[in-house]
Design brief:
It is a single chain. The protein is mainly beta. It has a single domain, classed as Immunoglobulin-like (Sandwich), CATH 2.60.40. It is about 10% helix and about 45% strand. The chain has two helices and eleven strands. The chain has helices spanning about 1-15, 45-50; strands spanning about 20, 35, 50-65, 75-80, 85, 95-100, 105-110, 115-120, 125-135, 140-145, 150-155. The strands form three sheets. Strands 2-3-9-6-7 form a five-stranded antiparallel beta sheet. A four-stranded antiparallel beta sheet has the order 1-11-4-8, with no helix packed on it. It is elongated, with a radius of gyration of 19 Å. It starts with a helix and ends with a strand. About 15% of the residues are buried.
């Protein structure tokens, strides 16, 4: 009887598979950002500190179509693809963000995702402004770093 209860508990708690959210309502933004040295001036920097760069992007707006999920209890994740054009190693980048509304702040490495919202969807479009800080290891950069954050949604069993 116990294995059946455990299996039943797992099926109740495990969310459904993730679907990519449509963000076609978001303003299309190609942003040219110039990174700066994270540690500048004189110092006894380690090799990692000597190659540490940071770039900032403010007020990037995302508008997510959520009309199919109104009234449903969900989790929304922000992800960054593992392969980032212009980056020779996924471990050479970390993205942090703060938000100005419904979504939670967080941090992510390429190939991962981070929870930005959990709750019941009330609106057909969810929008928020993100302020990104992108940390880079200059040893693994090539010219023309490009990436698009991806939002995924999972419906939680109620």
């Amino acid at each position: 009887m116990k294995p059946l209860l455990l299996l039943l508990a797992l099926t109740i708690c495990v969310p459904a598979f993730a679907e990519r959210l449509d963000d076609s309502l978001s303003p299309r933004q190609r942003i040219d950002v110039t990174p700066r040295w994270q540690y500048d001036g004189y110092g006894n920097w380690t090799e990692d500190q000597s190659n540490a760069l940071v770039a900032e992007v403010s007020a990037m707006e995302f508008r997510l179509k959520t009309q199919s999920y109104v009234g449903k209890n969900v989790q929304i994740f922000l992800g960054v693809p593992r392969l980032v054009k212009g980056l020779r190693s996924p471990s050479a980048m970390r993205v942090e963000w703060k938000t100005r509304g419904k979504f939670s702040p967080g941090s992510i490495l390429p190939g991962d995702r981070s929870l930005v919202f959990q709750g019941k969807i009330a609106d057909s479009v969810m929008s928020d402004f993100f302020d990104f800080r992108i940390y880079l290891d200059g040893r693994y950069l090539e010219r023309g770093l490009e990436f698009d954050p991806v939002f995924e949604i999972e419906i939680l069993n109620q």
